[in-house]
Structure formats: C-alpha cells, structure tokens
Amino acid sequence: MLDRFGSNALAYPAFRTFFLANFVGNSAWFVFNAGFGWLVLVLTDSAATVGLAFFAAGLPGMLFTLHAGLLTDRFGAKPLVVLSFVFTGVVVIAFGLLALAIDLPLWAILLFAVLQGVGMTIGAPGYISIVNDLVPPGAVSSAVALNFVGISVGRIAGGLIGGLLVAAFPAPWAVIVAGVLQAIPAIPVWRLHTPAVSREAAAERALIRPLIDAGAYAVRFPTLGVILLLSIVPGALGLSYNYMVPVAARDLAIGGEGLGALLALAGAGGLMAGFVAETVMRRAGHGRAIFIGLAISALGMLVFGLSPLVAVSIASMALVGGGFVIYSAASLALIQALSPPAVRGRTTSVFALLYWGFMPLGGLAGGIVAEAVGARAAFALAGLIILAAGLLAIVVRRQVLALRVDRDGTTTAAGVAIDLAA
Predict the structure, then answer these.
(1) Checking DSSP bridges between strand 411-413 and strand 416-417, what pairing results, if any?
(2) How wide is the angle at C-alpha 30 spanned by C-alphas 29 and 35, nearest 5°?
(3) How confident is the model at residue 295 (pLDDT cuts 50, 70, 90)?
(4) For FRET with 19, which of 43, 129, 214, 310 sits at 20 to 30 Å CA-CA?
(5) 8 Å CB contact between 151 and 78
(6) Burial tier of 385 (Cβ tally within 10 Å: 0-12, 13-18, 19+)
(7) HEC profile for the chain?
(8) CATH value of 8-189+202-417 in 3.90.660.10, 1.20.1250.20, 3.50.50.60, 3.40.50.11720
(9) Across-strand partners of 405?
C-alpha cells in the first residue's frame, strides 16, 4: 500500500522517526521566519531592511555550506544534524529573550541572524543525505519526497502558529517558540542507529581539495552539472519569496493573520505536491519532474504578482509551494542517484549552496525591488526569470528530460543504465 502511494520509505522505522523529528524542526523554521521578519518590519518599516536581515541569516550558508558537506562526508550526517538542531535552538531562544527584554539595535539583530544561519548551515547537507543511512537505495526518492511533505506540513503548522503569535503577542514570543521547537528534535535523531562512516572518509583531513574533487565530478558529468547550476535561479529568486511574505502581507493589507494564511497555503500546496511527487517522478520521469515543478511554481508567482483579486493572489501561494516541492524532490533524487557515496555529501552540499544558500542574495535583491515597486511585482518578475531559466536548461542539456531513477535504485537515461564508475 505504501509503495502504491509513493510512500514506501515510511516502511522503515528509522526514517519514520527522522520524518517526525524533521517536521518539528521545519515548523520551527517557519515560525522563526514569521516572527523574525515581522519583528524587523515593525522596527524599521522597510522592506529593504527585511531583505538585509534575512541576507545576514543566510550569509553563513553561502560561505560554508560546501564545508558542511565535507564535514558530513567525514563524520556522518547524524552528528551534524543533531548539532544543528541544538545550536540553532539555543541561539534563537537567546535572541527572543533579549528582544523581549531590551530594544535591540539593528547590528545586534543582524549578528544573531548570522549565528542562527551558522546553526542551520551545519546540518543543511545532512538533513538531505541522511536518508541514505535510513532507507535502501530504491526508497531514497520516496524518502526525499516525504521530507518535502514534512517541510510543507511544517510550513502550514509553522505559518499558522507564527502568524497567530505575531498577531496576538509581541514578535519576540514567536522567535522564542521557534527556538524551543528547533531544539526538541535533537533527542530522537541522536538515538537513531546509522551506519558507521568509512575509515577513508574519516581519515581525510584536507579542506579544499575534497570540494574541488566534488566540483570536478560534476564537470565530468555535464548532466549533473546542469541540474546543479539550474538550482541557482529557483533558489535565489524563487525560494526568497519566504523572506518577502511579511512585506507582501503588508502590501495586501491582510495583517499578521494574513501572513499566517500565505505561509499556510504555500505549505498546503507543498503538502499535496509532496504526496504526489513520487508518483509524478515515476510516471513522468525524474528529469521531466524537475521542469514540471519549475513551471508550476513560476505560474504561481506570476498569478500572485499580477492578479487584481486579493483572494486569487493568496490562493496562488499553493501553486508556489507545490511547484518548488516537486522541483526540489526530483532534483535531489537525481543528484544523489548520480553521485557515488564518496562524494554524495559534497554534491548534495553544492545543491544546498546553490538552491538554499543563494536565497539571501535573492532576499536582498527582492527587498530592494519590493521597496521600489512592491512585493507583488517582485514575485511576478521572479516567476518570469524562473521560466526562462528552465527553458535554457532544456536547450543546453536535453538529456536531463530522459533521466529516471528506477525502483531498484538504478539511474537510467532513455532506458540505458548510467555507470557512476565510468
């Protein structure tokens, strides 16, 4: 039954534990986004400053995600994930308590944002690659899709909780709640049994050379390289919508409750997409699913930005959230399938850097555009650029469309198996 619905990864107890723990952590992230963004907007009344604050939070990801991937290959995913949960939770709780007690200057807010970003970056590659330690190869794409279900449910829960908290209480309370939720999952994840890291990986001490090797591997396999490079546009210009949602709620005059609704609808769309992502990947192929997801998310952003009806704009957030889930699930399934175990953490970290790590740049640019022409216009422009990037990728490397990961874990292109050792 689980296999029929593309959820066969849930048959494995270790993955079920991680799925529930990660859901709590994902909820915390969206509660934090709502509370932190609202706090900065209230203090400064500036969309550009909101973008700057989230840029500071994402700066560690831009600088150190690749090294986090190297550490993941060296020490294993589980220790890095646990450390990320604990460190981030402590930093966020401390920030919330200080923001309640005193009026923090902007430099202090930016400093705490950077520290929060450090915590998130530590575990970023591990959150993805740990599924390879919890399920067999044939269930990896299901596990990846289900992880995005967890993100989407977390977006719904976190968005609603965050929106209600900022509507009823001072914004720092939402930040404190986010910190508590962020720290809780460390306990069940630490108790998971995962395979030991190979002695060769643990013995590696170089910091730069392994990253160069991972980049060289992507160059040797141009199809993988195109998938990785494509992620820059939907990550930097698409996912940065998370940072602009508080500004969009203000522009639409829907308040804190409306902010929660925008986040929840994006999560609802992602939830539905997460449940069908495995089916879409199996039927259309993982390569085609990448572009299906891009098209859906870009359409949602265009509707949000251009619709004259507020209700339609709000509802379109479901397309935005759903499209990005299908895109990222298909991309990650292929990246992990196309990467041998020795470099999987690093190639995953390259995707994490390009997709999630460049979000701060998009948030900074989006804040500037939103300051000049409004958040909705910024959404529409991003949607157009995402469509153009997807078409360019197809022109440059049409083979991506033919990629598929079979149920036994074999990666094929137009029915021909791909040899990773070649």
Answers:
(1) antiparallel
(2) 100
(3) very high
(4) 214
(5) no
(6) middle
(7) CCCCCCCHHHHCHHHHHHHHHHHHHHHHHHHHHHHHHHHHHHHHCCHHHHHHHHHHHHHHHHHHHHHHHHHHHHHCHHHHHHHHHHHHHHHHHHHHHHHHHCCCCHHHHHHHHHHHHHHHHHHHHHHHHCHHHHCCHHHHHHHHHHHHHHHHHHHHHHHHHHHHHHHHCCHHHHHHHHHHHHHCCHHHHHCCCCCCCCHHHHHCCCCCHHHHHHHHHHHHCHHHHHHHHHCHHHHHHHHCHHHHHHHHHHHCCCHHHHHHHHHHHHHHHHHHHHHHHHHHHHHHCHHHHHHHHHHHHHHHHHHHHHCCCHHHHHHCHHHHHHHHHHHHHHHHHHHHHCCCHHHHHHHHHHHHHHHHHCHHHHHHHHHHHHHHHCHHHHHHHHHHHHHHHHHHHHHHCHHHHHEEECCCCCEEECCEECCCCC
(8) 1.20.1250.20
(9) 411
Point out the least confidently predicted range of 186-195, 285-294, 345-354: 345-354
Give the closest residue to 383 by CA, choosing from 279, 307, 275: 307
Mean pLDDT, range 72-81, rounded to an integer: 82
- Taking the whole predicted model, whether its pTM rises above 0.90 is answered as no
Average pLDDT over residues 323-329: 87
pLDDT digits (tens, 9 = 90+) for 376-399: 888 888 889 999 999 998 988 888
The candidate with the shortest Cα–Cα distance to 115, out of 44, 167, 64, 71, is: 64
Which amino acid makes up residue 72?
Answer: T
Rounded distance, CA 416 to CA 398, Å?
15
List, for residues 231-241, the tens digit of each pLDDT value.
888 887 777 76
Angle at which helices 209-220 and 222-230 pack, to 10 degrees? 110
Q: What is the pLDDT of residue 296?
A: 93
Give the tens place of pLDDT for each residue, 30-49.
888 888 888 888 777 777 77
Average pLDDT, the chain: 79
